[in-house]
Amino acid sequence: MSPVPNSDDPLREVRERLLDAAERVFYAHGIQAVGMDRLRTVSGVPLKRIYQLYSRKDEVVRAFLRRRHDRMMGTLAGYVAGADGPEQRVYALFDWLYDWFGEPDFRGCAWMNAYGELGPANAAVTAEVHRHKDAFRELVTGTVREAGYPAVVADAVYLLVEGAVVAAQLRKDTGPAQEARRGAEILLRAAPGPPGRTMAGSGPDARREAADTGHLPGS
Question: pLDDT tens digits, residue range 139-148?
Fold first, then answer.
């Protein structure tokens, strides 16, 4: 197992620099297209030191995926928690997607990209993919269930989220986040839900649409 960075580890800064470079080039160019020599060049970490930290390229891939997972899940959970009310937290999932899709380096889901390149034959990487996808699904569906909707609705919202990621990767624009959000609004309006629900159309996505059309929600 690859070593886990901690504050007492003298190699922590070197490891972080290497993983920063690995995440950047693997995500932008693909895992198979990037060798250890390229990692050395981009990170500035000598090849000998890289192999002291990670004995195989697969270990670097696992480490970058795990670190990205921790960062992404923490960021998403914090964003959703900041929304005003349970139902708005559901819509916040799509507003977060909108911001992510708009990043200049957006290339889709890093875990599905890795799985698509390496396939199920690579058990270690496949385990990281399943670990991420299980946690991501639980965050999304848990947000919907906590808003008072049944599991079948939570599962449908999750598929809207995942579909938006795939569509945005292909289209290279933020539109799928808005389209999926509107789908979620329709779904939640039609589904049995909590009493006293708030009406959709008051979140960041609605404000963006209002700015585009020149109409305020409800006007």
Answer: 999 999 999 9
